[in-house]
Amino acid sequence: GFHIGTAVAGGGHHEDQPYPDPFTSDQPYRTVLAAEFNSVSAENQMKWEYIHPERDRYDFGTADAIVKFAKRNGQVVRGHTLLWHSQNPEWLEQGDFSKEELRSILRDHIKTVVGRYRGDIQQWDVANEIFTETGELRTTDNIWIRELGPGIIADAFRWARQADPKAKLFFNDYGVEGVNAKSDAYLALIKQFKAQRVPVDGFSAQAHLSTRYGFPGDLEANLERFSALGLETAITELDVRMDLPEGGVPTEAQLAQQADYYNRTLVACLNVDGCDSFTIWGFTDKYSWVPVFFEGQGAATVMWEDFSRKPAYHVLRDTL
Ligand code: XIL
């Protein structure tokens, strides 16, 4: 029952990641994708700006293809994501909508997207990155919370449950690997949801790690406290970036440290009851988002650009 997943590369912020859609165009990529994983997540293709590019138009093309590919290859799918402050289309962010309109826009979106894949999605990241580092709700940059208040988060979970009663509904965020203000805020909100019978099933840590910082040694203890509430947990976007030396080639010591971070993340998840989904955010440096978003850093995935395997790949295989 354990799922090893990867994000399926595709698009990204268009100007930043100029390559075409690897999922449709790169056959060797697809071969590895089919062979090495039993779970897949859409890196971008189910986000608002991709799947709902105009108010009255959805574009399901690549998302449908990913779900079909997954079925054909015996893989489950994680849905990502429904309520987020980022990668929303301009028509939404710049639109001039009343509160009632915005509410029905979100409800319709969730019913439409979750409903379309009803029965095909194992876990949905319903709410993504709703808290700041200090554990406050994002009341300025998250359009939904800003315009409609925090109650909209519970509504999003309720609408998702109605649209697909079998999908497990998750909160997902970065920087919540350890016990800290942000993960504390999730724990408190989830307790409140449970008390109010709002349907929430899981809490997941993205785990975009960097060898610049120490490994979050309390990852397991943190996941445990969510598990103790009866929740599922998951690692959803693991990668381990590093500062690239002059010339761009990581040292053996860096690769060993990276392998250790990957492995400790996997071990923590394996040790926690209900942590049954472990996803890396892309498997090859060829399409990793890291060099685009973190200047001077890279080599964050388990395979080189030619799909040859790094120490991190081997260490994960040995642990499994
Ligand atoms: C990233 C993608 O990897 C990029 O291709 C895109 O340009 C920006 O978003 N947290 C998330 C993911 O929840 O959706 C983000 O994915 C990485 C951080």
TrEMBL record:
Catalysed reaction, written as an equation: Endohydrolysis of (1->4)-beta-D-xylosidic linkages in xylans
EC category: hydrolase
Residue ranges, annotated region (Disordered): 4-25
Keywords: Carbohydrate metabolism, Glycosidase, Hydrolase, Polysaccharide degradation, Signal, Xylan degradation
InterPro entries (alphabetical): GH, GH10, GH10_dom
Entry-linked Pfam families: Glyco_hydro_10 (PF00331)
TM stretches of this protein: none
Domain GH10: 24-319
PROSITE patterns: GH10_2 (PS51760)
The protein's Enzyme Commission number: 3.2.1.8
Highest taxon in the source lineage: Bacteria
Family: Belongs to the glycosyl hydrolase 10 (cellulase F) family.
PANTHER family in the record: BETA-XYLANASE, GLYCOSYL HYDROLASE
Name the record gives this protein: Beta-xylanase
